[in-house]
Amino acid sequence: MHPIITAFESSPDRGQGLARDMRVRWALEEVEQPYDVRLVSFRAMKEPAHRALHPFGQIPTYEEDGLVLFESGAIVLHVAQRHAGLLPEEPDARARAIAWMFAALNTVEQPILELQVAKFQEGDKPWSAERLPLIKDRIRARLGELSVRLGDADWLDGTFSAGDLMMVHTLQRLKPSGMLDDYPDLAAYVARGEARPAYQRAFAAQLAVFTGQRPS
User: Fold this and answer.
1) Cβ-contact 165, 30 below 8 angstroms
2) Could you give the CA distance from residue 209 to residue 201 in angstroms, rounded to a whole number?
3) Are 64 and 81 in contact (CB under 8 A)?
4) What is the pLDDT of residues 96-143, one digit of tens each?
5) What does the alpha-carbon distance between residue 131 and residue 94 come to, in Å, rounded to a whole number?
6) Strand runs labelled E in the chain
7) Nearest to 191 by CA among 180, 177, 202
8) How far from the centroid of its chain's Cα atoms is residue 5's Cα?
9) Is the overall model pTM greater than 0.90, yes or no?
10) Which domains, from first to last, does the chain contain?
């Protein structure tokens, strides 16, 4: 039996690859692990059957041989630990790759998500105009620090790892804002991630849900 993941039946990002099942799809493609997808509606996500898999009523979830996981970071880590290709064999390098996964989710993604909330859910509030520049300043601070750390390297710590996968997908959320344009090295870093064949396969599979067409 293949692992089963859940994804949006109708994704809010309209097939742009930003929904969090993309991270799991990409990880599974990197390790060449076949998987099945169960699409869920927004209504079904809040019903008891889905909440038994994900207590917060979100996607993705992951089911395999009786194991049920939620949270994209936890799922990607599980995939990376079970299959070769996303974590280095050397213990210290492996630990650093996992640290970058946590950095992507906790340090870099949080202000980016704040920006999205401020724009799309709080844009009509009287204090929104004052709050937005503060959030953008926090994002720029993180991008500047990440840019210094990346330097002229292709990946964050030697070869491509689950840490890069999570970081690239996190940074993609900034593309509509244009903020990545001020950091050409980070924009190139994201482009390298997107150029990977595994990413391309995962993106095509997620886009096919939106277009209603099977990826070729």
Assistant:
1) yes
2) 13
3) no
4) 999 999 999 999 999 999 887 767 666 567 776 777 889 899 999 999
5) 38
6) 4-8, 36-40, 61-64, 67-70
7) 180
8) 14
9) yes
10) 4-85+198-211 (3.40.30.10), 91-196 (1.20.1050.10)
CA 189 from chain center: how many Å? Answer: 15
Q: pLDDT for 73-94, tens place per residue?
A: 999 999 999 999 999 999 999 9
Nearest of 31, 34, 33, 42 to residue 7 by alpha carbon: 42
What distance in Å separates the CA atoms of residue 161 and residue 165, rounded to the nearest whole number?
Answer: 6
DSSP H helical ranges for 46-85: 48-51, 72-82
Q: Which amino acid is at 206?
A: Q
Q: Establish how many alpha carbons lie within 13 A of residue 176's alpha carbon, considering only the half-sphere containing its beta carbon.
A: 12
Beta-carbon contacts of 156 under 8 Å, excluding residues fewer than 6 positions away, are 100, 149, 150, 163, 164, 167
What distance in Å separates the CA atoms of residue 51 and residue 121, rounded to the nearest whole number? 24
Residue 169 to residue 38: CA distance in whole angstroms: 22
What is the distance between the alpha carbons of residues 184 and 210, in angstroms, rounded to a whole number? 30
Residue 142: what residue type? Answer: R
**With contact defined as beta carbons under 8 Å apart, do 62 and 69 qualify?**
yes
Q: Identify how many contiguous H helices and E strands the chain contains and give both numbers.
A: 10, 4
pLDDT attached to residue 122: 64
